[in-house]
């Protein structure tokens, strides 16, 4: 896309999505399960998780809304030669990915860039978002290019490293005595057979943060695996905490969820409630790094990768 030709570019900002209220949870869960309604027990479990979070479901949706607004503001402030208009496209809730593409076309957008609020590429995650957006764009005649990953962007690494250093200061022991766990959302093990880049990209991000902060006591763990009857990537963070206790490796643990960019269920429940409960039972002090949300360095990361594609012929 040439900046000389194109003065107005749509940005499709894609993410997983979350319901806007408790009464939307069943439809949301049914969509995740590809049209199969959850059992009453499964539905109640998910409702309980949302209700356990301070403020319930509402702040989760607001986090994504704020990120989209902040990205649009940063793009237009930083690159006044182009007018950027951001549209939201969610995987499992309205506005769906296809809705975002359709709204761009309705608004007269002819050139667009798609970016996912997830730094690491997997064919099963980011690849799926891109496929849906591309199919709708092809149907409607929209020219769209996609950011596939940005897991080693210097500003992303800087933002995450600053959070690790900030969180390490909460411990009353030297950082050498703190075990750092980098985590991300688990995916089915079959991605290993596909030579999917997801696990290695996550390790690359973790290594870059460790190098920048001087951490030597760190490992990677997975979290939030689905209950699908097939094996998912492990070890799970709860098992990692138990092994740390059993092997007496540390009494102080810092979790840095590098695979997540905002506060949502997998962070506020799976880490702050579920993992904290296990840690307390084990006598482990567990702390977590702050989420990126609308951090200026994260907005810089996103604006850089979007603009790089907007400039291409």
TrEMBL record:
SUPFAM superfamilies: Chelatase. The keyword Lyase applies. GO terms for biological process: heme biosynthetic process. One of its GO terms (cellular component) is cytoplasm. One of its GO terms (molecular function) is metal ion binding. It catalyses: Fe-coproporphyrin III + 2 H(+) = coproporphyrin III + Fe(2+). Keywords: Cytoplasm, Heme biosynthesis, Iron, Lyase, Metal-binding, Porphyrin biosynthesis. It is found in: Cytoplasm. Pathway: Porphyrin-containing compound metabolism; protoheme biosynthesis. It comes from the Bacteria. InterPro entries: Ferrochelatase (IPR001015), Ferrochelatase_C (IPR033644), Ferrochelatase_N (IPR033659). It is an enzyme of class 4 (lyase). Fe-coproporphyrin III binds at residues 16, 33, 49-50, 129. Gene3D superfamilies: 3.40.50.1400. Its EC number is 4.99.1.9. Coiled coil: none annotated. PANTHER family: FERROCHELATASE (PTHR11108), FERROCHELATASE, MITOCHONDRIAL (PTHR11108:SF1). Involved in coproporphyrin-dependent heme b biosynthesis. Catalyzes the insertion of ferrous iron into coproporphyrin III to form Fe-coproporphyrin III. This is Coproporphyrin III ferrochelatase. It comes from Paenibacillus validus. The gene is cpfC.
């Amino acid at each position: 896309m040439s900046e000389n030709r194109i003065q107005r570019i749509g940005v499709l900002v894609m993410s997983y999505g979350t319901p806007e209220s408790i009464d939307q949870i069943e439809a949301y869960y049914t969509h995740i399960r590809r049209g199969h309604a959850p059992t009453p027990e499964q539905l109640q479990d998910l409702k309980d998780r949302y209700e356990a979070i301070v403020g319930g479901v509402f702040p989760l949706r607001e986090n994504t809304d704020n990120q989209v607004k902040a990205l649009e503001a940063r793009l237009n402030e930083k690159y006044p030669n182009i007018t950027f208009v951001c549209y939201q496209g969610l995987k499992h809730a309205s506005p769906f990915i296809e809705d975002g593409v359709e709204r761009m076309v309705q608004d007269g957008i002819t050139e667009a860039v798609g970016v996912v609020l997830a730094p690491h590429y997997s064919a099963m995650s980011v690849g799926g978002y891109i496929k849906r957006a591309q199919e709708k764009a092809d149907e409607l005649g929209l020219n769209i290019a996609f950011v596939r990953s940005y897991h080693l962007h210097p500003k992303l690494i800087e933002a995450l490293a600053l959070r690790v250093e900030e969180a390490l200061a909460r411990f009353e022991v030297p950082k050498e005595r703190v075990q750092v766990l980098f985590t991300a959302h688990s995916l089915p093990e079959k991605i290993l057979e596909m030579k999917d880049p997801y696990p290695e990209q996550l390790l690359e991000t973790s290594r870059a943060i460790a190098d920048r902060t001087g951490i030597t006591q760190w490992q990677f763990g997975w979290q939030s695996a689905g209950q699908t009857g097939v094996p998912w990537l492990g070890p799970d963070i709860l098992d990692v905490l138990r092994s740390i206790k059993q092997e007496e490796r540390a009494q102080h643990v810092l979790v840095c969820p590098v695979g997540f960019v905002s506060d949502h269920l997998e962070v506020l429940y799976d880490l702050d409630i579920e993992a904290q409960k296990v840690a307390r039972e084990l006598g482990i002090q567990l702390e977590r790094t702050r989420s990126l949300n609308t951090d200026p360095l994260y907005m810089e990361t996103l604006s850089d990768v979007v603009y790089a594609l907007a400039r291409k012929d």
